[in-house]
Hints:
Elements: H1 2-18, H2 24-48, H3 53-60, H4 66-112, E1 123-126, E2 129-140, E3 143-150, E4 161-163, E5 166-172, E6 175-186, E7 189-209
Antiparallel strand pairs: 1-2, 1-4, 2-3, 3-7, 4-5, 5-7, 6-7
Amino acid sequence: MGYYKSVAKVAATQALKDAKLDSPVAAAASLCGQAMASVILYLALGSFTEMTTATRSLTAAAPFLAFPVALIIRLVSTPGVMAREASEVFQRELTWWKEANGNLIKGLNALTDPPRPPDFEDGIYQNGSLVGKVIGMRTTDHKITFEQIENTEALDRNKAFYFQDILLMIVDFGGLTASQNRVIIDKSGARTVTAKAVIQRVTCRSIGDVRTVKRPGT
């Protein structure tokens, strides 16, 4: 019953607006206009037609049917309008909840992620310690290949290491150089750096990531 009462209330409110009866001033003006139209119609029908008085009266009452006609139309159309508005509200609420849930998950992930070290972007780690820096990276066939890994004196090549959020294991490499010089160009200009224990053309496979395997030392 509550639903039908709501439909009737909304339909009546909209019908009053359609018939211009939704305020005292508008209702008075509308009723006066309808009365004048009825009188003119009644007199015109008597002067130019041979209708009976009863027929003329019924025809002259037509201007007063604006509200009943509008109410019938609104009663038919209001359920569909209410359903559409309810669906739009539901979609807005659903979108809000999805965004809120996504933000909550991001926040929880930020709280549970291990702290990132200063050399996170290009460093590799074992047991929480920096054991090398990578130069050049590409991924092919679910494997990661580094052009070279520098300063690997403390790296145990037979054990897994972390690169960014990925746990990797070396499966192959092209060579090992004790020392190597290379030129770095940055904002301050060109400079030469010396890298030690350089492993070249290093191919690695992924074992997991930081969410599935706990990073040692964190």
